[in-house]
Amino acid sequence: MGAIQESGLAMFGKPAAGPQDKWTTERVLSIRWWTPTLATLRTTRYRGFRFTPGHYTRLGLGAADDIVWRPFSLASAAYDDYLEFIAVLVPGGAFSGQLQHLRAGDRIRVDKASYGFLTVDQLAAGRDLWLLASGTGLGPFLSILRDPAVWQNYERLIVAHSVRHSSELAWRDEIAAMPKGELFADAEAALTYLPVVTREPGAAALAERIPLLLADGRLEAAAATPLDVATSRVLVCGNPEMTRELRQALAARGFATNRRGVPGQMAFEKYW
Ligand SMILES: Cc1cc2nc3c(=O)[nH]c(=O)nc-3n(C[C@H](O)[C@H](O)[C@H](O)COP(=O)(O)OP(=O)(O)OC[C@H]3O[C@@H](n4cnc5c(N)ncnc54)[C@H](O)[C@@H]3O)c2cc1C
Ligand SMILES: NC(=O)c1ccc[n+]([C@@H]2O[C@H](COP(=O)([O-])OP(=O)(O)OC[C@H]3O[C@@H](n4cnc5c(N)ncnc54)[C@H](OP(=O)(O)O)[C@@H]3O)[C@@H](O)[C@H]2O)c1
After folding, report:
1. Whole-angstrom Cα distance, residue 52 to residue 72?
2. Which of 63, 89, 130, 246 would be a feasible disulfide site paired with 96, CB 3.0-4.6 Å?
3. pTM listed for this prediction
4. Residue 198 CA: which ligand is closest?
């Protein structure tokens, strides 16, 4: 595939040793703007780039002598020959300021490594996998949902995505169509997709923040299954306040994170 592998050595004529060797320069293949401030983008993929669904890498934008680096979760499948990301424009943010001008064909730096613990291998075996996201926190869950092994290893996949406005329900149609996709059609798991829209009354059946929906039982009612430590495994991603509140609420129900290599029942990633 067409990844452009420029090392820092080629670009700057500096010695091979150094941080520049840790990234490649890729091309933006396409950008989809869901709203004026929310985009998904695809880039070329360095053939040596490896990751586990749920991981993040670092993206770099800007002039060669002033690159702004930020962590971004991988939304593409491990087997795709491109990389996919979702990104929100934050007012005044250094990376956002560069991102808003990005176009197909532009260059973007991608760290050669991937990182993180928001992966299903952090979890003990279970029956139901709950994926609870706010905003762009849905990104890593797309990668996890695109992994056929997940559809074999769980009976239920439950995705709750909380956004302010329904236009921010990125990948909504793609998620809904997944059970019919050829990779998953013969799989064991049933998918339940629960959009949560908090600032547009009437846009979705669920209109409160996820921690509240969990506390009052509406989340489990909407999924038609209990969130139980014996059978449920939970990944949470996005707003740090949401991750903190859900960690507390789940811990109170007996859920634990991976400790010293002992798989747990929940894992978290916060974006700021
Ligand atoms: C492990 C990890 C993975 C991440 N993955 C993603 C991702 O897949 N997509 C993505 O858009 N961002 C992701 N982020 C956040 C991202 O790295 C940047 O912070 C974001 O793009 C804004 O960069 P900035 O320089 O414009 O503003 P920054 O100076 O980095 O952020 C300014 C403020 O904007 C808010 N903010 C930052 N990121 C977000 C966000 N994603 N959603 C809502 N508010 C935010 C926070 O209040 C933050 O303090 C991730 C962060 C971490 C730590
Ligand atoms: N979304 C927009 O319309 C918009 C437009 C321009 C710029 N931005 C900027 O983009 C950034 C991110 O916005 P975002 O909407 O992607 O992320 P966000 O503010 O984290 O909101 C995403 C979802 O998470 C919910 N949420 C917020 N705090 C929570 C908590 N403590 N517990 C549980 N759920 C919580 C929100 O509900 P609530 O609605 O109840 O907060 C919303 O449903 C902000 O800096 C914002 O200024 C956003």
Report:
1. 14
2. 89
3. 0.94
4. 2
